[in-house]
Amino acid sequence: MGSNLSLAYLMLSAILFVIGGVGVLIRRNPLVMIMCVELMLNAVNLTFVTFGKMLNDISGQIIVFFVMVVAAAEVVIGLALIVAMARRRPGATADDLRTLRG
Amino acid sequence: MIASLFAQAAVTSATTENGIVHVAGPSIDWLALLPLLILLVGALLTLTFSSFLKGRAPKGLFTWTTVAIAVGAAISAVPMWARVQGWNSLMWWNLDQAQTGPFSTAGGAVGIDGFSLFITVVLCIGVVLAALLADDFLRRESMSGPEFYVLLLLSAVGGVIMAMSNDLIVLFIGLETLSIAVYVLAGMNLRRVQSQESGLKYFILGAFSSAFLLYGIAMLYGATGSTNFVDIREFMASVVPIHNGLLLMGLVLVLVGLAFKISAVPFHAWSPDVYDGAPTPATAWMAAGVKAAAVAGLVRVFMLTFSNYASTWKPIMYVLAILSMVVGASLAIVQSNVKRMLAYSSISHAGFILMAVQANSGNGITAAAFYVAVYTFMVAGSFGVATIVGRKGDGNHELSDYQGLVRSNPWLAGSFILLLLAQAGVPFTAGFFAKFLAITAAADAHAVPLALVAMVSAVISAFLYLRIIVAMFMSGGDDGLEDVPHANRLRVPMAAGLAIGICVLVSVVYGLFPDLLLHNARAATPAAVQFERPVSAGSTTAGG
């Protein structure tokens, strides 16, 4: 892989990470916020693979599996919390979560 | 690193006999991982066997099981402590080799040294205290069942993994194991909408910060070519990194991720809300256990791995420490809810710990270890009192709910006063020595302005603790002195009383005899030890 191509992949993953980060900050639906966090984690996965390729090191690609497992566990917990919330207050957005003043 | 380990194991030991390929795994010192295994297996067995009881569990069964598991895990760390400290006379199980000193195992993924064992024991103590507080609380709130205890143990597993981590990815996995269990703990009280809200808030912000931490790890991997602490340390010693943006960015992002977990100031916004909404025993664990594990992560990454590169991260941590101490102490004063007050005061405590970490010296590590150990008792005891005063529904945490406590429950109020004074750092309490060591470490590292700010903020936060104490002395209700003390007397359950008693006793004893703990805190030094890979002919460099 040429170094220019690697750089392009790193830029792509940085852009994806920023899109995810901005999404968490501006979207108000908890479900979409979780999807944005997942986008951030997957952007990091792409970074790991690219660095692994650049360094000619297999561990960069193996780390991705660890991250995927963690991301999956996170989604399970997040969806459970959202379901518990939605049963009590259907259609709640992040703006409605203001019982505790910040 | 983990990956190269597997790759290497496959290459070096893949011998073919009759067409069957034998692949040897990494050699693992199971005895060294015993605290971790006891907590993990204990949690899973508790969950499994509880399903056979079909809800007919005897009162307090899970509490005492959890306490036994945590105490067992703490005791199992003692033989390793003897090995790390080189107490040869005590090493009856290791007579043949008599290896002493810190070591790393599981392919260099895990480092067993004084610091990791110290934090392991602190985490086990945190589990014991939180389980004792939860005993009566869960019955009161109709949340009985093994779930709370299992999650508590599993999050402790994550904390122990973080404390023992010798690899950035292991650190990340430990942090996530810890956090995911705590997200559920925070949102567990389905009857309180605040609890669910705090769980969801903590989850979204926690996952957000984990993503930053992971991106930082990816950048450090790209900059240094490894995720193993020892390899990174060697790499950093061999090159002179100038204007290395990737490395700098990675360090900053990792610091952001860990600062979020210890709730240092620019990243603290979640903690008052979450501490307020979460079930109070879970809050006690969050304040004690999660913070201890995150401090362990900070020490391992910054003081152990990047200690040669301190000129870059020290100024950032300096600013974080100042902001945490001042903002935490100042905002605590204007609160009217005791749980939120304690949350802000824990932010201020985080600032003191950061001050010790930024010293980047042996004294700094000692101060951080001492502070974390003492803080666990002080904060768990304080939230223990809040658990009892919260009454049924877990909603009575306003300052006015504490009025008249001295007359209705003198022992409870007295314990709370002692714990608050210890948090304020009054001499002859353990909190005094914790603050003293942290300030000394900073002053020794030529950070005198930081030490001065710390002293000022200690004074500011003393006002906060006195405010709670004064509220307890005020008479409850409008009818003044004729108030009947027995009418609103709180019942102090046995287990929670025991936990608070332990906390008070320790806060006082370590205040009078700090050497008892200081001796161990001095021995709690982290060490970077290269994993000794099994030597075999030929391909030792496979996998990179």
UniProtKB/TrEMBL annotation, chain A:
Q: What is this protein called?
A: Unannotated protein
Q: Which GO terms describe its biological process?
A: ATP synthesis coupled electron transport
Which range is the signal sequence, renumbered to this chain? none
One GO cellular component assignment for this chain's record is: NADH dehydrogenase complex
What is the membrane topology listed in the Swiss-Prot or TrEMBL record? Answer: Multi-pass membrane protein
Q: Which family, according to UniProt?
A: Belongs to the complex I subunit 4L family.
User: What Pfam families does the database record attribute to this sequence?
Assistant: Oxidored_q2
Does the entry feature the keyword Endoplasmic reticulum, yes or no? no
* Keyword terms of this UniProt record: Membrane, NAD, Translocase, Transmembrane, Transmembrane helix, Transport
* Transmembrane intervals: 6-26, 31-51, 63-84
Q: Which NCBIfam families match?
A: PRK05715.1-2, PRK05715.1-3
TrEMBL record, chain B:
Query: Primary place of residence?
Result: membrane
> Which regions span the lipid bilayer?
30-49, 61-82, 115-134, 146-163, 169-190, 202-222, 242-262, 283-303, 315-334, 341-359, 365-390, 411-438, 450-473, 494-513
The UniProt keywords, alphabetically, are: Membrane, Transmembrane, Transmembrane helix
Q: What GO terms in the biological process aspect are recorded for it?
A: ATP synthesis coupled electron transport
Q: Which InterPro entries does this chain map to?
A: NADH-Q_OxRdtase_suN/2, ND/Mrp_TM
Topology in membrane: Multi-pass membrane protein
Q: Does the keyword Translocase apply?
A: no
Naming one, the record's GO cellular component terms include: membrane
Compartments, record wording: Membrane
Q: Which residues form a coiled coil?
A: none
Q: Does the keyword Transmembrane apply?
A: yes
Molecular functions (GO terms) = NADH dehydrogenase (ubiquinone) activity
A Pfam family of the record is Proton_antipo_M
Tell me the ranges covered by the NADH:quinone oxidoreductase/Mrp antiporter transmembrane domain, including all copies: 165-461
Q: Cross-referenced NCBIfam families, in alphabetical order?
A: NDH_I_N
Report the protein name in the record.
Unannotated protein
What species is given as this protein's source?
freshwater metagenome
